[in-house]
Amino acid sequence: MALDDRHDRYPFRELEVKWQRVWEESKQFKATEDPTRPKFYCLEMFPYPSGRIHMGHVRVYAIGDLLARFKWMRGLTVPHAMGCGAFGVTAENAAVENGVHAAA
Q1: Beta partners for 77?
Q2: What is the maximum span of the chain, computed from C-alpha positions, in angstroms?
Q3: How far apart are CA 82 and CA 73, in angstroms?
Q4: DSSP for residue 100
């Protein structure tokens, strides 16, 4: 059975288009700048793709998400950056240990 044959389980084509349109029209994810609000910069750690995922990753990202949302709900402007640290020594060491390229 092809992936497209299972569309009756989750009609992703229709739902994704619908919700992307709703979010675009409501400007749900539009960033705004308000200089009157205090700022809180939240950065828990950059993920790196060459390491094996473990519960420590879940814990760190969940705590960062909760903290950023808590601060945002308290009225702060919260930049919550997410990036990729595949250029770092940690990623390179994990890649060597797993026998893969650090960019993988």
Answers
A1: 39
A2: 56
A3: 20
A4: S
The residue type found at 47 is: P
CA distances in angstroms from 33 to 37, 39, 83, listed in the order given? 9, 10, 21
Give me the mean pLDDT over the 37-59 stretch.
Answer: 75
Provide the whole-model pTM: 0.53
Residue 89 parent element (H or E):
helix 89-98
Q: How confident is the model at residue 61 (pLDDT cuts 50, 70, 90)?
A: confident
Q: Give the mean pLDDT of 81-90.
A: 58
The H or E element containing residue 26 is helix 12-26
Q: Which string of DSSP letters, residue by residue, matches 10-76?
A: --HHHHHHHHHHHHHHHTTT-----TTS-B--B------TTSPP-HHHHHHHHHHHHHHHHHHHTT-
Query: Which amino acid appears at position 43 of this protein?
Result: L
Other CB atoms within 10 A of residue 94 CB: 18
| Exposed/middle/buried for residue 33 (C-beta within 10 Å: 0-12, 13-18, 19+) | exposed
